[in-house]
Specification:
The chain contains 20 helices and 20 strands. The protein is of the alpha+beta class. The chain has three domains: 47-162, DNA ligase, ATP-dependent, N-terminal domain (DNA ligase i, domain 1, Orthogonal Bundle), CATH 1.10.3260.10; 229-422, D-amino Acid Aminotransferase, Chain A, domain 1 (2-Layer Sandwich); 428-554, Nucleic acid-binding proteins (OB fold (Dihydrolipoamide Acetyltransferase, E2P)). Strands 12, 13, 14, 15, 16, 17 and 20 form a seven-stranded antiparallel sheet that branches. Strands 3, 4, 5, 6, 7 and 8 form a six-stranded mixed sheet that branches. Strands 1-11-10-2-9 form a five-stranded mixed sheet, covered by helices on one side. The longest helix has 17 residues, at 199-215. The protein binds adenosine monophosphate.
Length: 562
């Protein structure tokens, strides 16, 4: 099938918010695909060049892409930023640039139209380009791909390459569309999507093998499944109530969740988002090979980074391990990680997802050899649970998880079988010093806010981070009006404003950051209230933020490397 049909479909999806219409249009489209086209088409419709479990990535930055687009069209930076301002979307902005600069592009009338399979194979070639000269090779491949595409096709190629599809067609809707397309009950599709970890893959099985194929699916080693998720409660007592008076409390570690697949001596590790991170964690692979007893197993756990004093390090340091895959050996010496297992999903041909949690945990203990399990108590006593929470937090962890004793493992579901209990840091009152127009739906509003705290010594406002989270649409609209009234100047897409508006900001952690002059940055900042009752000189100070930052280290180890 021609790629154009896929992009026409995307345009239709973009133009509607009606879920029914979306799923039936997609279903019609899916029915017309060839067997080999189903997986690539669905992956692309969901904004992924490859299936989700696939370790390959294009590794192409927006900077590279925009350079290529400029080369092809002769457009200037200014033209780009105006188009982006008008649309709030990289893909749509690129389409405008391509339409406007048609004449500059080489005439490609005689070339055959792009097909879905061709696009996939170019993506494969881009992902596989490695070693010396790979940058140039990648660029050439992209250039000839975009050179052959129409403006609408370019729009979606860009969106897929940078992973920002934004047609409103989420995975849940895709499951409904697949169910409609192949007349297979939605429940079966959901189970298959969970077992294969990817709706595109599940749909391909529907088309090739029908209801029979999809019903006989089971776990497959090296195919990650969607992780079970947790809801939040405020305290251990609430968790006890929810779980019928007695439950298993575990340390909630502040690390990265991993799903480990093992068959014989072969081990692969997947992140929470189901990408393959095996290469980033060689020592985890080693310990699994050495310690885990069953021949085949799928397990879950959390890896945490450790400081020199053996205490857990803030999350950001761990993330460096996932980002840098090249000089891994050096980094693994610098940032040792420790694995704590918490679940066993599959073992030697047997699925354990229906087995009650206590029993899974018992079997995990047997299977895990010398590997730590997350610390756990089973109790019906709120006071004991409260003490356990304090102990977890004092040892530098995030809080507790409560797990219902007889609960199954429910992949991909954020239910009440697992509850998380966190101790949060006190919110800060910060001042908005600048704002940016948002992207997508928010592109007409000043909706990304630069947050700052006052320096007691100089009176200056020093930035601590940005956020677009927390305000309702109405509040954003209102805030845009207010900010425009106090605007001082525009620098590109950033509007600098007088420091007058105070907002209350919640966050998960204060990190060290070279990005801002304050030297610190808030992780996961979100606005919780607009504090019109406070004036900017009543806002919190940099000195206070620094004190909170230091206090974190009373619990967390300091980072010694830099
Ligand atoms: P959240 O990311 O805040 O929704 O919390 C859920 C996450 O907590 C999981 O995805 C895990 O990465 C992490 N976690 C830490 N400790 C545990 C534990 N003992 N059991 C399950 N998840 C845990």
């Amino acid at each position: 099938m021609e790629f154009k049909e896929l992009t026409d479909l995307c345009e239709k999806l973009e133009a509607t918010t009606k879920r029914n219409l979306m799923t039936s249009t997609v279903a019609d489209f899916l029915r017309r695909l060839g067997k080999e086209e189903v997986e690539p088409a669905i992956s692309m419709l969901l904004g992924r060049p490859f299936p989700r479990w696939d370790p390959r990535t294009l590794d192409v930055s927006w900077a590279t892409l925009s350079r290529i687009i400029q080369r092809l069209t002769g457009a200037s930076w200014r033209e780009f930023s105006v188009a982006f301002r008008d649309t709030g979307d990289m893909g749509a902005a690129t389409k405008i640039i391509f339409e406007r600069n048609k004449t500059q592009r080489q005439v490609t009338l005689f070339e055959k139209p792009l097909t879905i399979l061709e696009v996939r194979s170019v993506f494969e070639a881009i992902a596989e380009a490695s070693g010396q000269g790979s940058r140039e090779r990648k660029e050439r491949l992209i250039e000839s791909l975009l050179g052959r595409a129409s403006p609408v096709e370019v729009k979606y190629l860009v969106k897929i390459m940078i992973g920002e599809m934004r047609t409103g067609l989420q995975e849940g809707l895709m499951e409904i569309a697949v169910s409609k397309a192949f007349s297979i009950p939605l429940e079966k599709i959901r189970t298959a999507s969970m077992l294969t970890g990817d709706i595109a893959e599940a749909a391909a099985i529907c088309m090739k093998e029908g209801l029979k194929g999809i019903s006989s699916l089971s776990f497959k080693i090296f195919r990650p499944i969607k992780p079970m998720l947790a809801q939040t409660v405020d305290n251990p007592e609430e968790a006890l109530k929810e779980h019928g008076g007695k439950t298993a409390f575990e340390y909630k570690l502040d690390g990265a969740r991993i799903q480990i697949h093992k068959s014989g001596s072969k081990v692969r590790i997947f992140s929470r988002r189901l990408t393959d991170v095996t290469r980033s964690l060689p020592e985890v692979v080693e310990v699994i090979r050495r310690e885990v007893k069953p021949k085949e197993a799928i397990m879950e756990g959390e890896v945490i980074a450790l400081g020199k004093d053996g205490n857990p390090l803030p999350f950001q340091h761990l993330m460096r391990r996932f980002r840098r895959v090249y000089s891994i050996e050096r980094i693994s010496e610098d940032i040792p990680v420790e694995l704590h297992l918490f679940d066993l999903i599959y073992m030697d041909g047997e699925s354990l997802i229906e087995v009650p949690y206590v029993e899974r945990r018992r079997r995990l203990k047997e299977a895990a050899g010398g590997i730590f399990l997350t610390r756990q108590i089973v109790t019906d006593d709120p006071a004991e649970a409260e003490r356990f929470l304090d102990e977890a937090v004092n040892r530098g962890h995030e809080g507790l998880m409560a797990k219902r004793l007889n609960s199954p493992y429910t992949p991909g579901v954020r239910g009440k079988h697992w509850l998380k209990i966190k101790k949060t840091l006190e919110p800060l009152d910060l001042v908005i010093i600048a704002a940016e127009y948002g992207t997508g739906r928010r592109h007409r509003w000043l909706s990304d806010y630069h947050l700052a705290a006052r320096d007691e010594e100089t009176g200056e406002f020093l930035m601590l981070g940005k956020t677009f989270k927390g305000l309702t649409d109405r509040e954003m609209e209102e805030m845009t009006k207010r900010l425009k009234q106090i605007a001082l100047e525009e620098r590109g897409h950033i509007v600098i404003v007088e420091p007058r508006i105070v907002v209350e900001v919640a966050y998960n952690e204060i990190q060290k950051s070279p990005k801002y002059r304050s030297g610190m940055a808030l992780r996961f900042a979100r606005i919780t209230r607009i504090r019109d009752d406070k004036s900017p000189d009543e806002a919190d100070t940099i000195q206070k933020v620094r004190r909170i930052y230091e206090k974190q280290f009373a619990r967390k180890a300091r980072f010694f490397i830099e």
